[in-house]
Amino acid sequence: MAAPAVGSRIKRREDPRLITGTGNYVEDVTPAGTLYMALARSPHAHARLRRVNVKDALQHPGVVAALTGPEVRQIVDSVPCVVDFPDLKKPKWPVLAVDRVRYVGEAVAAVVATDRAMAVDAASLVQTDYLPLTAVTDPERALRPRSTRVHAEFKDNQAWYSLTEAGDVDSAFREAHVVVKQRLVNQRLIPLAMETRGVVAQYHAASGLLTVWSTSQNPHQLKSQLAALLGLPENQVRVIAPDVGGGFGSKIDVYCEEILACIFALRLGRPVKWIEERRENFQGTIHGRDQVDYVEVAAQRDGVITGLKVKVIADVGAYWGFFSPAIATSTIGLATGCYAIPNFRGELYEVFTNKTPVDAYRGAGRPEAAYIIERAVDLVALELALDPAEVRRKNFIGGPFPYATAGGMSFDSGNYRAALDKALQSAGYQRRRSEQKRLRQRGRYQGIGLSSYIELCAIGPWEMGAVRVDAAGKVTVLTGTSPHGQGEETTFAQIVADQLQVAVEEVAVQHGDTAVVPAGIGTYGSRTTAVGGSAVLNACLLVKEKAFKIASHLLQVPEDRLTFAQGTFAVKDAPDRAVTLAKVAAQAYTGSVPGAEMGLEASAYFEAPNLVFPFGTHVAVVEVDPETGEVKLVRYVAVDDAGNIINPLTAEGQVHGGIAQGVGQALMEAAVYDESGQLVTGTLMDYAIPAAEDLPLFETAFTVTPTPRNPLGAKGIGEAGTIGATPAVVNAVMDALAPFGIRHIDMPLSPERVWRAIQESAKARPARRRGPSARRRGS
Amino acid sequence: MIPAAFEYEAPATLMEALALLRRHRGAKLLAGGHSLLPMMKLRLAAPERLIDISRIKELAGIRESRGGGTIVIGALTPHGTLESSALLQEKCPLLAEAAAVIGDPQVRNRGTIGGSLAHADPAADLPAALLALDATLTAMGTSGARRQVPARRFFRGLLTTALRPTEVLTEITVPVLKRGTGSAYEKFANKASRFAVVGVAAVVALDRRGRCSQVAIGITGAGPKAVRAVRAEAALLGREPTAANIAAAAARASAAVGDALSDIHASSEFRLHLTEVLTRRALARAAARA
């Protein structure tokens, strides 16, 4: 029997085309007669928009048409947000601004021209008359009673509030030996997919079909949304997500540009194309994170955590994106981490500000939770002078599973201690600690940081997979997920290869075209393998079931006397009486078999019964240059548990990319707004992201705790690295700075911030070693 | 991102370029395009006409002067060529060292020494090295007359140089470092742009008694223009390059900066602090190599 494909390190089959420049991206799609769209955008964070005049723009050479807010509003009411909660304030996000602009970069007019440069020039000729208003950019200030209101129709900027409580929090804090408190800023980030967004809309009047090429992560949802917004039947809209160069959540949303391109295409009968500029990507595509979090931990002297209070102030920006209201709810849901903390109070304030809307960005609410609890655990360890690994061990959930958490989650399976132990062993933790002591004596400041994160995946409600074996025995797989860098053309082929006993090369995986794939939800939230892969697996089972029927007919034995191995159906005890899957497939398309209809294909919907919860422990080792404040990441060990791994090579790739993004948040990245609401880190010359030279070789490993919640036993690995990395790196830097009495610095830990903290600690010395916000009780 | 419309010329010779420059007063010279094109794409610059000099062969290349003693570098020489030049690595390693930390390989393959110097970005790396080397810059005017400008008089202020609008920077002359001379470039990079937050180039020569017979310090990034740290140099000259002497000299370096820049990447206070730290490190390394 050949080695199973699942579990093999198979190179991604999509890579040759992508790395040789022969992929097919939205930018590569230019139907004959294409017009180009460009937008005029608000330079103000908050202003009354008294007039928009496109007369000059329309007279510019090559310009064909233009649209403004009031006209568009007659056709499409607003940009969609699909989340609804009780008492959620839900302002309309107009496709083009009407009367008021609420963030820098908000679209106010659109023009189309025969040439892209002409369209851009014409957009700059759109005349606008703004009356600037005070902008509110700080979410805590926005919550104050007399703050400027982002939306005048609501009495305040509090977009939503929720309270989650479990156990007896107040008693836990009353009886605690120590209480540790900290304010944590989880700064706003720019998702920065390598490929910016883009759309091409083409309307074929004779057939009535609207075809939309989009950089979407979820083309089927975009199709349904566009049909509903434009008043078209869904079967007249086709969305194609061709090769897509990364999304990290930012390509889930239905944006104004897709809607506008469709409106122009329908109106003009010509294809309309828009490709986002990098500067627009900074301002107009959703942002991530942006929370101010207050955490309080009640603990016993031995490090056992008895209570947790978390107050999350989530800056959601000016409007709701597609999933925006739900993002920070995961922060509350996972705030207790992988720890058995019985008493919990989580308060969530979602707040409007005059900034770009916040929506899902790699991790989407979970990195914030991991940062809160993993920083808090380290502060408890610091306060009690305990080893942070020991504090984690003492508090891990030990089961039984499913385990109901205080945050309201039902954890499927987990072995948190195994991942921690493996990570510590790989990192040589004890040796590292002695080395650290020696280095400190020589004036070198090394730090070791841990993060035992928990992650939440397999968002439903379902996913669709279809498997077809053609008459030649080759297999085609359709998936409703829409991978854009995740590698499912390879990994789903592996799943099918094992099920149907064919070579991986004989399985083609198709995705992204709603006319090819009948139904789907999409790729986000690390759901693709767990939900989409399970649907494909179930479709394989249905195909096999039918193949058994046909084989039984061909071999003239009952099905229960047949085995299936090496791609061959054989009679038990008479292995020479056998028929290959190819032969069975040929029969399926040539002559009917009693009890089995023609063809050999099946589709299946996998309904996700509940969420799954990957986890792991990451160890970061850093060295801080106390003179310049520079942090050098010298070593990084990641042990992740995503259940069964389909392809360790691609899984490691996901971990690597995730860690890089997590390190980026810890050390470099920040979307900085000034008081007037201008994005001052609006280009790649100002917004720092890690490059290869900033990162060490990552050492990755897995523990395997399968989930019982899907037939693959797989969880999700797409966001794990990002979730684990940020607190591991920050904890490492704080560990390095402990000799200076420094307890916390907000991210990003830029050289100047670190240097300043060291300067201030030098001024403050000799002071108490521990920070003023910790207090001790009962000792 | 798309720049505003512009006219484009690509002369094959220096004389043609000068003639175009004389004819079109609003024209900008385009070399590697790594500063000008991004500014045009962001529409921070909108020249009516570009004169692309990148095809002018006579402006490229690195050679040792006939009598030896100096190295002459064509203005269109890309940073990557400076970085990998065996001649520079052997005889003027400071320039190769500074060029090696500019941007990333793609930038170094396109960006040119002349383009960088003429643009005079306050955070560019090469100005610090050229100042420390006492380089000479040669410019040619529309009449074809050559004019030589010492590096110390070339950088006038933020994005401003001694070049006249109708001049083309043609070559840069740097000295061959004598025996007993060491050099080093210390850069603290902005992680976004990879420009220098502060960069310090140092040249130190030791006499037979181990005392500093020459000290030159060029600083970039800290202020609106690259400068020489004259007082810090004087403080070390004639002394042994001990850690204490170097530290004392470095403490005087930030005085040369004047009004330090302050932005979201680094406050003026931090830039001045870095100036001292990097000067100390650059001097120590240069002295160790002398």
Radius of gyration of chain A: 28 Å
Q: What is the name of the CATH superfamily of the largest domain in chain A?
A: Aldehyde oxidase/xanthine dehydrogenase, molybdopterin binding domain
Tell me the radius of gyration of chain B.
19 Å
**Any idea what the shape of chain B is?**
globular
**What's the average pLDDT of chain A?**
96
What is the annotated CATH architecture of the largest domain in chain A? 2-Layer Sandwich
Task: Bin the strand percentage of chain B.
Answer: 25-35%
> Major sheet of chain A, described briefly?
7 strands, mixed
**Helix amount of chain A:** 25-40%
- Can you summarize the main beta sheet of chain B? 5 strands, antiparallel
Distance between the termini of chain A: 65 Å
Shape field of chain A = globular
Domain module count of chain A: 4
Number of helices of chain A: 20
The beta-strand count of chain B equals 14
Tell me the total number of β-strands of chain A.
Answer: 29
Percentage of β-strand residues of chain A? 15-25%
Question: What is the rounded distance between the termini of chain B?
Answer: 48 Å
Give a short synopsis of this structure.
Chain A is of the alpha+beta class and 779 residues long. In chain B, α5 (93-99) runs antiparallel to α8, α10 (230-236) packs antiparallel against α11 and α11 (243-250) packs antiparallel against α12. Chain B has twelve helices and 14 strands.
Please describe the structure with a list of short key phrases separated by commas or semicolons:
heterodimer, A: 779 residues, alpha+beta, Aldehyde Oxidoreductase, domain 3, Aldehyde Oxidoreductase, domain 4, 20 helices, 25% strand, B: 290 residues, 5-stranded antiparallel beta sheet, 4-stranded antiparallel beta sheet, 12 helices, 14 strands
